[in-house]
Amino acid sequence: MMHPLQSTLLGASRIQLWEPLLWALAFAAPWALPGHALIVNEMAIVALFALSLDLILGYAGVVSLGHAAFLGFGAYTAALFAKWVHPDPITGLLVGMAAASALGALCSLTILRGTDLTRLMVTLGMALILLELANKLDWLTGGSDGLQGVVMGPVLGRFEFDLMGQTAAWYSLTVLVLLFVLARRWMHSPFGATLKAVRDNPLRAMAIGISVHRRLAVVYTLAAGLAGAAGALLAQTSGFASLDVFALDRSADVMLMLVIGGVGWLYGGVLGAVVFKLLHDVISGITPQYWTFWIGLFLVVLVLVGRDRLLKPWLWWGSRSTSTGDSA
């Protein structure tokens, strides 16, 4: 007989009826709107980046202002691999993920102790260190000029990257879907349940036998791998890797995406990324100099009015799927 906790977790991880329709619309967008395929590709990449941060912020309660370190490390690793070893996108993606995961495992040692403020400064410092290294090692990374001339081979040996960005969009969306499903299985497993216990009360979690440090190290490594995948996709689909991928703006923007979409709900990162990119592209097209003002105004309104009211349809679907899983 299945344990009630197992039944709840399995129910929560089941695919809801509306989800295939949502992803089908996303995959149809590059075909229906070929002129906006590059924007769809960017949305998929930043959604994966936001998803990776949500694993540590929403589910483990680890605040980070240096998450761009893993994005940039994955981007440069995949770009260097394509330029000097082999241009196959899938292999480069796996290498970028592996490198970022290894870096995450190393950096996880720095977030096991201290308060949220300490973790904030440590993660920020790691991103700044990598930024300076990428700048100084210009013989390898291109320095301030960036790593140029990255030419990718066809995806699966068949699908060439086109100028319109349709192949890039479908490639990034496919990786996003696969890693999203994997992340949901992680978070709706006993491992995810213990992460929430660690987030809510680390001392109580430790008292009942949960290895808090081990859980944090594992989830930090997994999140770094997903961020590295986003960085690899960014370098592969743009054919370029620059110091910008390590910038503080990247880490701040992904935090804003989670503020918009909500933390502790995997679709929150995806929704926040889509809304943020749409606002950025639309507003910057109207007023390039003052688009940050309008983004800031939107965030103020979001906080004052409440996400529940502004994004009620999405959150209703999210809460409905969660309640369905709980009752399964």
Question: Would you write up a description of this structure?
Answer:
- This protein has 328 residues and is mainly alpha-helical.
- The protein has one domain.
- Helices cover 74% and strands 0% of the residues.
- The chain is built from 16 helices and no strands.
- The chain has helices at 4-13, 18-32, 37-57, 68-84, 89-107, 116-136, 138-141, 166-187, 190-200, 202-207, 212-238, 248-261, 266-286, 291-305, 307-310, 312-327.
- Helix 3 runs parallel beside helix 8 (166-187) and helix 13 (266-286) packs across helix 14.
- It is globular and about 55 Å long.
- Residues 319-328 have low confidence and may be disordered.
Helix content: over 70%
Rg from Cα: 20 Å
Shape: globular
Structural class label: mainly alpha
| Mean pLDDT figure | 82
Number of spatially distinct domains: 1
The number of helical segments is 16
In the predicted model, the low-confidence regions spanning at least 5 consecutive residues are 319-328
Question: How widely separated are the two ends?
Answer: 14 Å
What is the succession of H and E elements?
HHHHHHHHHHHHHHHH
The largest β sheet comes out as: none
Content of β-strand: under 5%
> What's the total count of β strands?
0
Topology at a glance:
Layout: H1 4-13, H2 18-32, H3 37-57, H4 68-84, H5 89-107, H6 116-136, H7 138-141, H8 166-187, H9 190-200, H10 202-207, H11 212-238, H12 248-261, H13 266-286, H14 291-305, H15 307-310, H16 312-327
Helix pairs in contact: 1-16, 2-8, 3-8, 3-11, 3-12, 3-13, 4-5, 4-6, 4-11, 5-11, 8-11, 9-11, 12-13, 13-14
